[in-house]
Structure formats: structure tokens, C-alpha cells
Amino acid sequence: MVRIVGKVRWATIIALGLMIGLVALFILILGNTICWDCGWGEILLGLLFPFLASGLVAGFIGGLVAHTGKHGLLPGMITAIVVTLIQGVLILLNATLGLNTVPTDVEENPMTFFIPVIFILITMLPMGAIGGAISLRNITLSPPGKGEKEKGLFSAFKKPLFVVIFILAWTPLIVPLLSIDTNIDKPYSAWNDKPSGMNTFKEQVEAAGYTNTVSCISSYSLLSRIEEQSLLVILGPNRFFNPISDVPFLIDFFRKNGSMLIAHEQGSTSWLMYDAFAASLPSLATGGSIFPFMMFSQGILRDNVSYYKENQFPVIGAGNLGSHPITSGISSIVLNKAGGLVTIPGMDIFGWEIVATSTDGYSWVDRKQEGYPDGNYQYNPSVDKFDIPIEFEWALKKMGITIVGGVPMGGFPIPVIAATQYSTGGSGGRVVCTSDASIFSNQMISLPGFDNLQFALNCIDWLTGSNTSMKIIFDEAHLKPGTFQDTTVPAIYGTVLGYVGYLSSNWFTAPFYPFIALVSIKRWLPKSETEKLKEERKRKAREEKRQKKLQKKARRKRRVLGKLVYGKKLTKREKKNIQGVLKKSTYFMQKLTWYMEQSEYNQALGLLYNRLKRLIGKKFGSGTSHDVVIHAIMERNPSVNHGSLTRFFKQMERVVSKTRKLRVRRQDFFEKLYFEMITVQEYIESIQEEYVP
Q: Is the sign of the CA dihedral 118, 124, 127, 129 positive or negative?
């Protein structure tokens, strides 16, 4: 048995501190010990033991938190499971959403996202339940000290919650003052000046007159607050697109004639296109538009005829460039480990126009194989193909598109750039897709002898309709560092802001936000003297009402307890004596009540037995044996059973003993000993004078 001494609020703080430390330790262990480049089997096996241990400890802490609030096994187990689920979500964000993986490890099938979810449910929840049961049965808390009021579980969170809200609200103003390095070390970030960054592209766009450039560091839900026509630039995303807080708002942005530049880089672009397409399909029934569907092949595009230095750097010459505004004035573009756009019969309904392709007959997308992470440099039709995810085949069949045996990715010009426009007028609803985000990188955009920079500016001009006042939004929320976990303040703040933005933008939760804000602000604003008096009167009225309820509940309990002594009806005098003992409101009774609420029956019986022994010492003298007390009771009450009294004293000695301890776990057994003790106390009190044997 472990005992934590102190007030309830300190136990809560300790539990939450342990939880935070556990999460930090777990993330550290995962980032350094798990082989993320191995197959799913090895990854899950590596995660098994940390998951089991984490679930056990998380459940243990959850039970401790529950122990500080409500008593009983059921609420404690529920809390343990909830804490375990929170722990699982944090692990899922760390392991699945790519915080410790490199972009090339992202699978093209979005259903792989659910494998860790199932694994967490199978491993962590049972261990969390076990951990919760252990803490609930083996940890007790000492009651509050004399003269001190016990505080509830939620009252301890009031001030910390206010501090957290205050910090989050001031983060946008504080971060620029504390930031040491202004460069964001993320591949394809518009603020990264390293070779893999895109800040040259951003600077050239601004130099061309497009100065209204901003970044999106949270979910796409904030796009719903932008009223004017805008351009969203998505370059090499490698983080999961949330189907709740991202995809619906992206579809809404597109339907409001927003334009998009989407550049794939072996990351999560396929997930975005799949989810947006599937989510927009139901609108066909109402005559609405669907999101322009495009598929990206995984692998490296190789061209044995037209390339720069190596065949993994294909050069798209003038002969492979279509006639389109984004190719105006361009003679060649160089790519860097690009993929390929997958076009199939029937996709013309999306209005895609192929703008650029590789050479004919001598290029293919080289997919990785066992022992060849970058492909085997040879075209193999059975391997180098694109398999349509099975969960989307039904949607394509509904549109008359049928694929058998996958789409070959070789033997013909591989599309690398496509464009479409959905709106009938103006420059809105335009989309450009490329299979390579490196076209816009600092390393490739200004490479001598190629027109990557002109191509990038042409894309911006066409997507904006040359409207230099249009807002250009660079997506930074779905980028991650290539070598370490993104724990920068902007990233953390963007994550929090994403959930806040989603809740305030969602049609269901948005109406409640003004009321929540009003109540929160009103609670913390200074009050006038009149308001303070009203608040004090209300507080006193609530306290009086609460006390009346407690007294009513206590009277009801006392009436029930009085009828249960040995299962017989009591006389009025006996009831009065018992109720007189129970209704005393002293520190002793406060401690007794606290122990009973925590189901610590041994401690409660110990308090009562100590009081009984003090009464015996007063009547019979200190050190009096139980036999003398029993003899005195039987002299005055001959009908009392000698064996019952002897058994009662033996049981109570075992209850308070440290060696031959009798553990009282059931409430009915506690009540039996309690009522016997009350009866013995009545017998002793009936002896008016000091007993002389």
C-alpha cells in the first residue's frame, strides 16, 4: 500500500506531471530506437513493449487522478482508459503523422494510417485498465489537515487553465521577440533558405509584385475566414491531411473559386487528392462540382534520353512542353527525383490538360524494391506500375473508370505537369499539379541553363490572373523537418490554433463560441461593488442550499443505519443515541467521512475503535483487558451473547493490527462492524459509575 500525503490538488499535480514526463520519455525512446525504415511487422514489434509499458503507466496515472476526485472503481477505470487514449493519440501523432520519419517513408495508401490506431487499441487499452485497477486498489490519499478545506479535482485546474489560455493568446506577439533563428529548417518551406527550401521562389514572387504573401501554420479550417479570392500553394507536403479539419475546408475554398498550386514530392499529396475527391463525390447528387482528382505515382522518374548529369534528373525540353500560359517563354525545365502524374481513361471530366511530359519510350517511374530503395534502374512492367487503392476503385467505377492490373508507368511519355480550370470566368478555380516540388527549390529554381524560375512565375501569373493584389498562402502546416521533431513554438501554436480554428469555423460548434467567450471574459473581468455584493449573496445562497442537501442526505443515511443494527427494530431511545453519535460535526467526523468516501474502511474503523478504547479507559481505567469489559457488560445486560462480544473485539484488534491485518473491503462488512461498535459503546455508556471489578 502506497500513501501519498498531502492535499488532493498536490496529488493531481503529481499525476499530471508524471503523465507529461511519460509522454516526453516515450517520444524520446521512439525517436531513437525504432527502425522506421523497416517493414510494418518490425515497426509494430518494436512498438509492442513500449506500448504495453506506456499503457500500464498511463492507466496507473489515470487511476490516481480519478482517486483524487471520485471514489469507486468504475469512474477510476473510465478515467484510466481516457488517459490511456490521450497517451495513444500523442503516440499516434508522433509515430504515424511523420514526426520521426523522412518524407520518402510515407505510404501511398492512406489506409495504412489506421494500422497503428488498431494496434494502440489492442495493446494500450487493456494495459491501461490493469494500471488503473492497480492504482485504485493500492494507493490512498491522506485527508486534509485540521481546519483545512478539501478542494475538488477541477478547482485545481482553474488558475493553470487561465495561465495556459493567457500564454496561447499572447504567443503571436511573444514569439517574434524570443525567436533566435528566423529560418525554418523544413524541406520545401517558403521561409527556408537552405538548398531544400523555397524562400527564393517566395522572394521572386514578391519581387514580381505579389507582396500579399502569408503562411498557413494551422489547419485549413482558417481558409473559411478568407473572403477574398486567394491562391493556396502546397509544396511537397509530408504530413497527414486531417479529413475533418482540413479536407472539407479545402473543398469549400476550391468551390469559392480559390486557386491552388500543388507540387508532389513522395509525400502525402496523394492522401489529399484521394480524400478531397471522395469527400466531394456526394455533391454530384445535388449538381455540385467535385474536386479535380489527380493521382501521383510513388518512385523516381528516370529518363535515359533527356537528363541533367544523371537520369534521375530529367530535363523537359521544348518538344515535351504543351502550349499553355504557364509554359510561355520556356525552353527547358529540370526535375529532381520526380514522380509521375497518373492519368487514366475517363479523367478528362476533370478538365486536366497535360502541360509537360518526359520523353517517349525511354522514361519510366522506377519504384523501390527489396534491396533497391531507389529502384533497380531498369523498367519492369510487373513492378513499375501504379496500383489503384482498393478503397477508391468503387468511386472510379461509379464514374465509368475501370482499371485492371494497375497502370503501367513506363513505355510512354510520363506526365509531370497538368493544369485545369473549373470556373467559367475570371481567374478563380484554377489548379496546377506537378509531380516534383523540387522545381521550385532553392537548389533547382535558378540552375543555369534552365527556366525553372520562369516556369514558377508563369504558374503564379496564370493562377492569379496576374492580379498582384491577390493573397498567396503558403502551406507550412503540412511540412515537417527532415531529421528531427518539429517542436518549434510556431508549430506548436499552429497545431493548437488549428483545433481552435476548426471549432470556431465548424457550422455545428461555431454558434456556441460567442457564448463561451462571453462567459469566460465575464468571469475574469473586474466587477463593480454592486456586482460583488450580488455575487456574494448568490454564493451564500448556493452554499446554504448545498448544506441543506448534505444535511438531508446525512439524515436519510442515519435513519437507514439506525434500522440495520443486528437486523432488529430499535427503540426510540436507541435510535436517538445512535443518531446522536453520528450527527456530531467535528474534525473527527470529517476525517471519518473522508475515509468512507475513499472506501478506506480500515482507517475509518480504526478511528472509531480508538474512540471506543478511550471510552473504555475512562470507564475502566487504562490497560483494562477485553475480558473485564465483556464481564462488566454482561453483568448489566445478561441477555447479551458472550461469544459475539469476544468475536467483535478479536476482529477489531485484527483490523487495526499491523501484522495480522484483517482487510475490510466490502461495505456490508464495514457496516456490520460499525453497528456492533455502536452497540458496544451504548452498553459501556450505560455503566453510569466507574466500574470496579
A: negative
Question: What is the rounded distance in angstroms from the CA atom of residue 246 to the CA atom of residue 258?
Answer: 15
Which grid cell is 109? 495508401
Q: What is the rounded CA–CA span in Å between residue 443 and residue 200?
A: 9
550 and 598 housed in the same domain: no
Q: What are the φ/ψ torsions at residue 231 (nearest 5 degrees)?
A: -120, 125
The total of structural domains in the chain comes to: 4
Tell me, what amino acid is at 621? G
* pLDDT tens track for 598-610: 667 788 888 888 8
Residue type, 440: F
The answer to whether position 39 is within a domain reads: yes
For 291, counting Cβ atoms within 10 Å of its Cβ (0-12 exposed, 13-18 middle, 19+ buried), the class is buried
Helices 158-178 and 489-505 pack at an angle, to 10 degrees, of 120
* Burial tier of 590 (Cβ tally within 10 Å: 0-12, 13-18, 19+): middle
Instruction: Tell me how far apart the alpha carbons of residues 366 and 604 are, in angstroms, rounded to a whole number.
Output: 74
How many other β-carbons are positioned within 10 Å of the β-carbon of residue 437?
Answer: 29
- Whole-angstrom Cα distance, residue 249 to residue 202? 24
- CATH code of the domain covering residue 463: 3.40.50
The per-residue pLDDT of the chain, averaged, comes to 71
User: Do residues 475 and 241 make contact, with C-beta atoms less than 8 angstroms apart?
Assistant: no
pLDDT tens-place string over residues 449-501 = 999 999 999 999 999 999 999 999 998 878 876 544 454 555 555 656 665 66
- Whats the size of the chain, residue-wise? 693
Q: Rounded to an integer, what distance in angstroms lies between the CA atom of residue 3 and that of residue 528?
A: 45
- Which of 113, 131, 148 terminates a domain? The answer is 148
pLDDT beyond 90 at 101: no
Q: Could you tell me the residue range of the domain that residue 576 belongs to?
A: 565-685
Q: Flag whether pLDDT at 568 surpasses 60.
A: no
Which of 64-78, 175-189, 573-587, 668-682 tops mean pLDDT?
668-682
The percent of the chain in helix, strand and coil, each rounded to the nearest 5, is 55, 10, 35
Q: Catalogue the E-assigned strands of 377-468.
A: 385-386, 407-408, 415-421, 430-434
Query: What pLDDT is attached to residue 147?
Result: 44
In the block, residue with C-alpha cell 466490502 = 666
